[in-house]
Amino acid sequence: MTRAVVFAYHDVGVRCLSVLLDAGVEVALVVTHTDAPGDIIWFDSVAQLAARYDIPTVTPDDPNTPEFVEKIRALAPDFLFSFYYKLMLKAPLLALPKRGALNMHGSLLPQYRGRVPVNWAIIHGERETGATLHYMTEKPDAGQIVDRQAVPILRDDTAAEVMRKLTCAAEVTLHRALPDLISGTATASAQDLTQGSYFGARRPEHGRIDWSQPAQSIHNLIRAVAPPYPGAHTTLAGKPARLLRSRVVGTQAAVASPALLCDGKAFHAVCGDGGMLRILELELDGQIIAPADFVQHYGRHSIPLI
To answer: Which end of the chain is more exposed for a tag (fewer CB within 10 A), N or C?
Structure first.
């Protein structure tokens, strides 16, 4: 029987762990994360799935300590898998499995190596992304590619919607590749990192809208960080505001500088290029506000956006 140690989190972790279990892989240990206090947990639990199959589960703060490496060594895994696990696994761990350490990454490598690849792909206006199964090296997301599966990014997709597609793509990719990995007949191809890109993590403050940007760029930011992510934010009428859903309407406005317009039926934002966004969901001072209520409180005049 093939034995694996699995580092996993999030929906991708749940679905890929499910693939291993369905294939009869002996999962000797699941390594996952404790949900942080205050986090919005909008995805399934790897720990709960492991518990249903009586698989031992641990949540180390650092999986690379000598003590933990020895714990994994004692399990003598054939494979080590990482499925949306948050922490980097270092060389001593990667050297342990007899038949390789593999990671499922949320982009079409070598593009969008690094952190939060779905969010970055949407910010940059990509129309396609995917899941890539690759061997792990000390350099992030740089190892040989075993298989990958593309998914479309529609022009108004949010990051959460793309993540649902990517989860399916990850499941399909692993399911397709696993028999050859187990049999030892899987092939892999080297990445040309000069043709790729690497991006770091994003923080909530990166979601502040620069209204001098074109409408399409602002729309991309809004959908890339829409809930359950922190949201694109600005200041409106002196109050904090989040723009949670938008659509480019493609018309020019007779307003010289960025401004919010509301006629009681809909919100529109004029952007730096004169392009217009229809704001489909607006949160003002912590509360969702409807166009009619906005007009009642602030009138029908345009409000500058800075």
So the answer is: N
